[in-house]
């Protein structure tokens, strides 16, 4: 009986967590040939959100933000996501570590 109750509780927890993740705002960012599009991304402050990053280029790309302590390496043609905790209003820089001279952008939390 205890096992059935634990299984039911775990199922409820997982389904509610999935529902919360589906309600999370999602923003998209593309990386290609050392450029990021858009180079300025506006997100709501004090709100958890998902960033979906797509590498459309022929080589590897890497989303990196030292300020936000986030890093994501993408092979060509790959799309991956990062989840960000609620951020205070402000401007946060990010860059493509494989193309630091041209692949730069800013996340603006407002």
Main attributes of the structure:
about 110 residues, five-stranded mixed β-sheet, alpha+beta, globular
Summarize the model shown.
By secondary structure, the protein is of the alpha+beta class.
In words, what does this structure look like?
This protein is an alpha+beta fold. It has a single domain, classed as Sandwich (Immunoglobulin-like), CATH 2.60.40.420. Helices cover 20% and strands 45% of the residues. The chain is built from one helix and nine strands. The chain has a five-stranded mixed sheet, with no helix packed on it. A four-stranded mixed sheet has the order 2-1-4-7, with no helix packed on it. The longest helix has 22 residues, at 2-23. The chain starts with a helix and ends with a strand.
What are the segments in which pLDDT stays under 50 over at least 5 consecutive residues?
16-20
Say what oligomer this is.
single chain
Portion of residues in beta strands equals over 45%
Number of strands: 9
Topology:
Blueprint: H1 2-23, E1 26-32, E2 35-37, E3 40-43, E4 49-55, E5 61-65, E6 70-74, E7 79-84, E8 90-96, E9 104-109
Parallel strand pairs: 1-4, 3-9
Antiparallel strand pairs: 1-2, 4-7, 5-6, 5-8, 8-9
């Amino acid at each position: 009986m205890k096992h059935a109750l634990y299984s039911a509780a775990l199922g409820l927890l997982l389904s509610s967590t999935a529902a919360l993740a589906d309600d999370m705002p999602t923003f998209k960012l593309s990386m290609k040939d050392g450029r990021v599009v858009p180079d300025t991304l506006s997100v709501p402050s004090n709100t958890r959100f998902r960033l979906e990053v797509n590498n459309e280029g022929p080589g590897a790309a890497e989303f990196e933000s030292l300020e936000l302590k986030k890093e994501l390496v993408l092979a060509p043609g790959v799309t991956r996501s990062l989840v960000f905790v609620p951020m205070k209003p402000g401007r946060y820089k990010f860059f493509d570590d494989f193309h630091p001279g041209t692949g730069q952008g800013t996340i603006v939390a407002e």
